[in-house]
Design goal:
alpha/beta; Alkaline Phosphatase, subunit A; two-stranded antiparallel sheet; 9 strands; globular
Length: 283
């Protein structure tokens, strides 16, 4: 019963906060948003970003130090909040060590997966890309994938079936590797590193799933976080074994918070839900 009450309270808050701005009050004064990802990736490939999207992150571009990038590999673990990163930073130690920079990033409202990844990979706030609730329509506006494809680049998505990344970016002339399990996704992700893709996007939703069911700091959720970090490190180790100069990232979409009944949730305009960790590097 407590879990049901907690979910009702969280849903009521989400309905209320949908009246607020796309940018969110929980990010006030915190600087760059997840929307910088698209323009940052485009500039890495010498593709001029459209004027209507969020500008690239100079802080992130600077880690490349003028290197010509052969490819970009972006890993998207779901719901890895900035507060979680700060509290359990020791668990991120290896991921930080093999990367070049970690940054705090502001999400968008409502802070739910399809809205956030649509913003991340279009460079647009929700009112401009059109996904403003937990729905998964195919985006009709231009995305990072469209811009890359128009410039002769090869892209792929590796994700689990039914999830937002697997659905909202469909209908592009690119490859989609969609599987039933995270284990299959991660195995395929390592395999595609041996191919000639210019942009590889990988999604894991295991922390988010465990967080919702058991709570953000439950044993089950923290174990899933460890799995995300272990896979990220394995991914980067393989990237660094290649001769290709690769830009790589660990980019979450939104944060999370505990609700009544020891469950977890997100979607609110709060510091916990609206701030995430991004980690970047170049090989």
């Amino acid at each position: 019963m407590n879990k049901i009450i907690g979910k009702i309270k969280s849903l009521a808050c989400l309905i209320f906060t949908k009246r607020r701005t796309d940018a969110g009050e929980g990010t006030e004064g915190l600087g760059e948003r997840i929307t910088t990802v698209t323009a940052t990736l485009l500039e890495l490939f010498d593709v001029k970003p459209p004027k209507n999207i969020e500008k690239a992150s100079r802080e992130v571009l600077n880690i490349c130090d003028g290197k010509k990038i052969d490819r970009a590999v972006i890993y998207n673990p779901d719901a890895i909040a900035w507060w979680l990163f700060e509290k359990y930073k020791d668990r991120f130690e290896k991921a930080i060590e093999i990367s070049d920079i970690y940054v705090q990033r502001a999400s968008v409202m409502p802070s739910v997966t399809p809205v956030c990844f649509a913003s991340m990979y279009t460079g647009l706030l929700p009112k401009y890309h059109g996904i403003r609730a937990y729905k998964k329509p195919v985006l009709k506006c231009k995305t990072i994938f469209d811009h890359m494809l128009e410039n002769g680049k090869k892209c792929c998505i590796v994700s689990t079936s039914g999830d937002s990344i697997s659905k909202i970016f469909l209908e592009r002339d690119m490859d989609y590797f969609i599987y039933d399990s995270i284990e299959e996704v991660n195995q395929k992700a390592l395999e595609v590193l041996d191919s000639d893709y210019d942009l590889v996007v990988i999604y894991n939703g295991n922390y988010d799933a465990k967080m919702h069911k058991f709570g953000p700091e439950s044993e089950e959720a923290i174990s899933a976080l460890d799995e995300n970090l272990e896979f990220y490190c394995k991914l980067i180790e393989k990237i660094k074994s290649s001769d290709k100069t690769t830009f790589f990232g660990f980019c979450s979409d939104h944060g999370c918070h505990e609700i009544d009944g020891e469950c977890g949730s997100h979607g609110l305009d709060t510091y916990e839900d609206m701030n995430v960790v991004h980690i970047y590097g170049v090989s």
